[in-house]
Amino acid sequence: MTEKMKQLRAQIEDNLAKLRSMLDLATTEKRDMTDEEVVAYDALEAATDKLQKELEREEKQAIREGQAQARKDQVHLADFNSKKAVPPKEFRNLGEFIYTVAFNRGDPRLPDLYHAYSAETRAQTMGTGSEGGFNVPEQFMPQLLAATPQGSIVRPRARVIPAGDPPDAKITMPALDQTVAANMYGGVTVTTVAEAASKTETSAKFREVSLEPAEIAGWIRVSDKLLRNWGAASVTLAGLLRGAMIAWEDYRFLRGTGMAEPLGIINCTAKLNQVRGTANSVVWNDIRNMYGKVKFGGSLVWIASQTVLPALMNISDAGSNNLFVTAFQGASGAVPATLLGIPIVFADRLPAVGTEGDLILADLQYYLIKDGSGPFIDASPHVYFTNDQTVIRITWNVDGRPWLTQALQLEGSSSNSVSPFVVLK
Questions:
Q1: DSSP code of 16?
Q2: pLDDT of 24-63, one tens digit each?
Q3: Among 12, 53, 207, 230, which residue has the fewest nearby CB atoms (within 10 Å)?
């Protein structure tokens, strides 16, 4: 945007505010505008229309200049298997996209402000919610967001709310109030009523669950030589960026504080703690007691720190018989993929054995993830210019938290509770 365009837009906005003020004054005083006010209003309106036409001419000229510059730069994106210097209609891989962001921003395939494409590049602000670099093309999104159970533990098992419009706006949803103050059925009470007797009034209780995607940013330094070899860069950068995004999210979904980041399972108020029987270890009673506190009926999973594995392998009954890795498996047998018939995954993002949260039994369908805008990618060759390195920055928006605020009382035993999140303490 040119300086003249900025000035024109500022003048137009100022005039519109004055016009609105004139209308509001007459409305507030419950009268029509006076003759003097009508003359002033018409004059200001005519001046605003003139400014608007001038701005439209400037914008059209900027588009023409941007397209002309793009045609000059197309030689950098020539199809090297052809003698024609004609760029393909789409980016061939993520590496070529990042290369173009770094070295050829005039490329018409980049959806910037001077081309009539779907997305835009702008200065990063929190007010608009969809800004921050060049939006990653849709066909490359799976390379960055594909979250398999092996790479990401929480996201593929949680309830994920996609980005809406606006994508980064706070979302508030009603949820059944199943706290102690209500009951498992949100306060609905069922009683026996005698013939002709008055019926007890009852009503369902609801509460609100709010999620607001916050901006997350990461960056990586890449040699210009690798970046220009965008075929190789695509494999390298996609793997590194995807791994970093998954690691950041999974850590916060498990251990986040909820302060300017997602609220993790370990720190949520809906969890139930199981105090371990032996310090710095995991014993059979810990496993049994955790299983007795979990809410049944969902899709359960054990999440364990890798440092817990030796303790699990030593778990035995009163007769010193191994229970997790049994004797008939022998030393060549694989570590079991289940514990009490429930899948177990080992996460190096959990704390060490003996620390709260080293072992979790969870139904992750009770965890909500709200995606926002992004990911966006931008590049800067200036910071490490003398080193022939370019900084690649990726930003996206996300929030997450359990939608329960406390454990659930058992219907037949109100002094006992269950929870979809049971944490070894």
A1: H
A2: 888 888 888 888 888 888 888 898 888 888 888 887 777 7
A3: 53
Q: Which pLDDT does position 304 carry in this prediction?
A: 92
Any residues with CB less than 8 A from the CB of 358 and at least 6 apart, and which?
282, 304, 305, 307, 308, 350, 351, 352, 424
The single-letter code of the amino acid at 38 is V
| Burial of residue 278, with CB atoms counted within 10 A of its CB: 0-12 exposed, 13-18 middle, 19 or more buried | exposed
pLDDT digits (tens, 9 = 90+) for 126-164: 333 334 466 666 666 665 655 554 568 888 888 888 877
Phi first, then psi, for residue 120 (nearest 5°) are: -140, 160
Q: At what angle do helices 230-255 and 94-103 cross, to 10 degrees?
A: 100
Q: Is the pLDDT of residue 242 over 60?
A: yes
> What residue type is assigned to position 335 of the chain?
V
Rounded Cα distance, 395 and 131, in Å: 9
| Whole-angstrom distance, CA of residue 120 vs CA of residue 113 | 6
The number of residues making up the chain comes to 425
Q: Which residues contact 424 (CB under 8 A, 6 or more apart)?
A: 273, 274, 276, 282, 286, 290, 356, 357, 358, 359, 360
Strand (E) or helix (H) holding 100: helix 94-103
Please state whether 260 falls in left (phi above 0), alpha (psi between -120 and 50) or beta: left
Beta-sheet strands, E only, within 156-260: 159-161, 171-176, 206-211, 214-223
